[in-house]
Every structure is written in C-alpha cells, then in structure tokens.
Amino acid sequence: MNWEKLTHDQINERVKQALSENMSYKTKKILGVPASYLDEEQFYDDAPFLEESPFLATLIANPNHIGCHTLSDESEPFFKGTQQLEKELISICAEEIFAGDQGQQDGYVAPGGTEANIQALWIYRNYFMREHGAGLNEIALVYSQDSHYSMPKGGNLLHLKSIVLEVDEHSRAIKPDAFEHQLQEARAAGIRYFIVVMNLSTTMFGSVDDIDLVTAILYKNDINFKLHVDGAFGGFIYPFTCPESSYTFRNPAISSFTLDGHKMLQSPYGTGIFLTRKGLMQYALTEEAAYVKGKDYTICGSRSGANAISIWMILRTHGSDGLKVRMQHLADKAGNLCDRLGKAGVEFFRNPYINIITIKAEYITKEIAAKYSLVPDQHDHPSWYKIVMMHHVKQGVLDNFMIDLKATLHTNAN
Ligand SMILES: Cc1ncc(COP(=O)(O)O)c(C=O)c1O
User: What span, in angstroms and rounded, lies between the C-alpha atoms of 75 and 81?
Assistant: First the structure.
C-alpha cells in the first residue's frame, strides 16, 4: 500500500484545476440542465476563505457526479474535472487499499454504506437472472445475524429470500456446521444461486467474518455464489492494521466491497464507496437513463461531486503512511482499554484489528451507559454495550470511564 501525501497547497491547486475543467454555471452558457450554483444569497462565492477551502469551493460550484465514471470516458462532460478526482480516489481504494490490479475495478461514491451494500445485491441479483436465467425464488441472500440492517432492507427491496447465519454468542463467529446445514436446506428448497455478504467488521461487535472458512464451505458444496464484502465499518481501518488479510481483490472469491468515508476517514456524510471488479457494474445499468450522457449505473442518480472531493482530499492529506499511523493509533487505544477491562474482570468482545469494544451489559449500569453515551445492541433489553474508539475519544474520558466502571463493580460486588 503506497500512495503519496500532498501538501495543503498542492491539494488546493489540484482541486482548483479540476474545478476549472468543469463547466461553470457562472461563466459558461448552460441552458439544458435543471441545476445551478448554490443559492448566491446564502452561499456567496466571493467569501475570502473559499480561496483556501477546496471542499467548500467545490460544494458551492455544485458539480453533479451522476453515473459511474470509471466505466468509460463517456460520462457527463460538464463535470469531468472533479469526476477525474473521483476516479483517482476509487483507484486508490481499489488498488492501494484492496490490492486490485491496475484499472481492473469500477466504483463510485455512494450516499453511504447502505446504498453501496444494496448496489452490490442489485448487481448480483440481476447477474444471476440475466446470465443464468434465475427466477427470484432461486436466489438467496446470505449474511450473518450480526450483519448491518442494510442486508434485510436490500433483501426486502429486491425480493430476495434471506438466509441468516447464526453466530457464536461469545466469539461472534459464524457457526460452520449450521451454515453448511442451511446451505443444504436451501438447495433442497430450490435455491440455486447465493449472494453472500461477509462483514469486514460488524456494526455492533467489530467482528470480522472468517472469509476463508466460509468460502471453503461454499466451494466444498459446489455453490454458485457472488460474494460482497461489507467494509462500511472496517474497510478504512482493517487493511491498515492487518496487512496480511484475505480481504483484498487478490482473493478471487470477492467481487465487491463497501466502504464508508464518513466513519473512520472523518469525511462528511454522503461518502459511502462502492468498489467492484470490472464487468459487473453493467448489471446495474438503467438503459432508460437516456438523457444522462454515459447512462446511469447507480441507485442514487444525482450526487454531489463535493463528497468525492472530500474523500480524495483526506486520502491525499495523509497518504498511505499517515493513515496507517492514524488507524494503528485507534487500534492501540482500543487494545489498551481492553487490557484495563480484562484486569477489572469485565467481559467483552474485540477483534484485535478493529476499534470497537463490546462489553456485556451486566457490567454496565444505566447511569454509566448514559453518562458515556454507550450504544446498546438493542434499546429495550440490552445484552451488550459498545465503545467505538474514534478520533474524538480522549484518554481522560477513558480514564474516567474506568474509574466509574470500577466503582460500580466494587459496589455491586459488596
Ligand atoms: C457494517 C455496516 N454496514 C453498513 C452500514 C450502513 O452505513 P450508512 O449508515 O453509511 O448507510 C453501517 C453503518 O453503521 C455499518 O456499520
């Protein structure tokens, strides 16, 4: 993994250059599009700080990144300058972070992890229907019980039957025997095609599905599958903290990834990322998008180019080395808290490469949960509470949390 960091001035220059290659609503004759620069009363473009703020300057110029720009050079020509930076960030994610071959992946900046996940399900459903003549009742969506709710949401939208895999209560690992049994049952019930989603960290536990184990079972049972990785939580940390992993495009079982810039990368909301091997995005083509140059391959349609610029800027501000240090720091801080919890006799779950610590609810009083804004697995009857070690979580707060926690443990023990 190796991409260069740029200075603030270099970043500013690149974005300005990109904006100058876009069509400007201010200076060009643009009669045909239902869009403009942002309302000039509220978002005046002569504010002096815009000179030094490439993201805000892009927001105000308001480029639309509709479509998928990695597919060809056919996209909307109006905003080709900033679209080029989106292409660059997609290749950094696909090739540098997930070790894809150069130019062999497509992708786009989606509104969030939910859309990126559903985009994957949509592509594979259409792939099985078009290439294998599959009926809806022959395709199943497979994911663990700890998966994000975007899986049942996507299954519902796309009319896919869900197969939910059981996990072990303590290790949060998919139970292999039960999985194999469910596959065989599904086959007996007429399911012939499987869309499998692996978690590159679950939302609540930070658990990472054992993809090698799961794919070994799929191959052993001669299953016809497409596999998507939900890296919305872990996709911007795990590759940095665990460089030797099976979660890369080098793994032939994997067809696509979801990432979320608006989690670990600290980009604004609206910065999900969908990455897929070349040859698959076409299954999400909407032919009827005839007025869009290059057509549309995404769920969302119009989307702000400023979001893409924000991700590009963050990737370029830190470079691969800088992000590695930042992500390792989060993992180290999580490890340190785990050591302290362990010494206090508190039971918790943590994947050592991820920055989530999930504590059994019996150790957490309602007061502590409220005081430290801990998030439960469910609000009515919590079994677990999680701590997410983000950049804003300071050591002093963690120290106070441990003092309060130990005091309640001590009181309860007496
Ligand atoms: C594992 C996982 N997948 C998907 C999502 C959905 O992401 P978003 O809220 O950006 O749509 C989340 C959000 O927490 C997540 O943790």
Answer: 11
Give 251's Cβ-side CA count (13 Å radius): 21
Assigned CATH for 322-413:
3.90.1150.10
Which of the following CATH numbers is that of domain 77-315: 2.30.29.80, 3.40.640.10, 3.40.50.11930, 1.10.3720.10? Answer: 3.40.640.10
> Could you tell which of 109, 230, 256, 260 is best to mutate to test the pocket of ligand 1, judged by most ligand atoms within 8 Å of the CB?
260
User: Over its length of 414 residues, how does the chain's per-residue pLDDT go in tens digits?
Assistant: 899 999 999 999 999 999 999 988 888 888 888 888 899 889 988 888 998 999 999 999 999 999 999 998 777 778 999 999 999 999 999 999 999 999 999 999 999 999 999 999 999 999 999 999 999 999 999 999 999 999 999 999 999 999 999 999 999 999 999 999 999 999 999 999 999 999 999 999 999 999 999 999 999 999 999 999 999 999 999 999 999 999 999 999 999 999 999 999 999 999 999 999 999 999 999 988 777 777 899 999 999 999 999 999 999 999 999 999 999 999 999 999 999 999 999 999 999 999 999 999 999 999 999 999 999 999 999 999 999 999 999 999 999 999 999 999 977 766
Contact 330, 337 (CB under 8 A): no
Closest residue to atom 16 of ligand 1, CA basis: 203
306 vs 82: CA distance, rounded Å: 8
Distance separating the N- and C-terminal Cα atoms of the chain: 52
